[in-house]
Design goal:
By secondary structure, the chain is of the alpha/beta class. The chain contains 8 helices and 6 strands.
Length: 230
C-alpha cells in the first residue's frame, strides 16, 4: 500500500511523477527522481492542455444548459493524473470519484466519447446514461467515476485484492479528494491494504477545500501523506 497526497494546481508533469525509493528516502540521500526527455515532456504538456481545454468547453456548455445533471471540472489538477499515468504500465487500473473527466482523458479514452456522455448521447462511453460522474471503460482499465464521496476507495481496494489473488502484477490507482479522506471506509481500506499487502496506490488530490470547507477545519492532520505510515 502507498499513499500519495498531491496538492492540485502546483505540480508540473515531472513533479507529479516524482517517486522516492526506500533507499533514496533515507536521511541525507538524494530522491530517486526519473528524468524525462523532450518528447515525454511534450506528451505530458499535450495531455494536460487537452484536459484543460476540454474542461473549459465543458464548463461553457454546462452554463448553456447543454450538459445535464452535475458537472465537476478538473481545472487546476491536470498535472496530478497526467504524472501518475506516466508511472503506470499496461494493465494497471484507475478508479476515482465524481471529478473524473481528466482521469478518463489521461487514461486514453476518446474525448469525443467523453463529451458525448456528458451531453447524454448514445455515442457516449456509458451510452449516454452515466453522465459526468459515471463513466467506465473496460478496455482502458478505468473503473469509474463514482458519485458517492469516498465510495471508490473501498472499490479500489477490492480491485487491488483481485490483483493480489490473481497474482497478475497489476496495481490499483485509487484517487480521492481531501473531503473524502475523513470517511470511515477510507481508514478501513487503509487497514485492509496494509494487512494483506495489497498492490494499491491511494492518491489524495488535495485541492484544499471540500465544497466550502477548508482542510484545516475538517482534518486534525492536514498532511495526508502521513496517514500512510500510521
Amino acid at each position: 500500500m502507498a499513499v500519495a497526497a498531491r496538492k492540485a494546481g502546483r505540480a508540473g508533469a515531472g513533479a507529479a511523477n516524482k517517486s522516492t525509493s526506500s533507499k533514496g528516502s533515507a536521511r541525507g540521500a538524494a530522491p530517486n527522481t526519473p528524468q524525462f526527455d523532450k518528447n515525454q515532456d511534450l506528451a505530458a504538456y499535450n495531455d494536460m492542455l487537452l484536459i484543460r481545454r476540454f474542461e473549459e468547453k465543458s464548463g461553457q456548455m454546462y452554463g448553456m444548459g447543454l450538459i445535464g445533471g452535475f458537472c465537476h471540472l478538473y481545472i487546476g489538477q491536470e498535472a496530478v493524473v497526467v504524472g501518475m499515468q506516466m508511472a503506470t504500465k499496461e494493465g494497471d487500473q484507475v478508479i476515482t470519484g465524481y471529478r473524473d473527466h481528466g482521469h478518463m482523458l489521461a487514461c486514453g479514452m476518446d474525448a469525443k466519447g467523453v463529451m458525448a456522455e456528458l451531453t447524454g448521447r448514445r455515442g457516449g462511453l456509458s451510452k449516454g446514461k452515466g453522465g459526468s460522474m459515471h463513466m467506465f471503460s473496460k478496455e482502458k482499465h478505468f473503473y469509474g467515476g463514482h458519485g458517492i464521496v469516498g465510495a471508490q476507495v473501498s472499490l479500489g481496494t477490492g480491485i487491488a485484492f483481485a490483483n493480489h489473488y490473481r497474482e497478475n502484477g497489476n496495481v490499483s490507482l485509487t484517487y480521492f479528494g481531501d473531503g473524502a479522506a475523513n470517511q470511515g471506509q477510507v481508514y478501513e481500506s487503509f487497514n485492509m491494504a496494509q494487512l494483506w499487502k495489497l498492490p494499491v496506490v491511494y492518491v489524495i488530490e488535495n485541492n484544499r477545500y471540500a465544497m466550502g470547507t477548508a482542510v484545516s477545519r475538517a482534518s486534525a492532520q492536514t498532511d495526508f501523506s502521513k496517514r500512510g505510515v500510521s
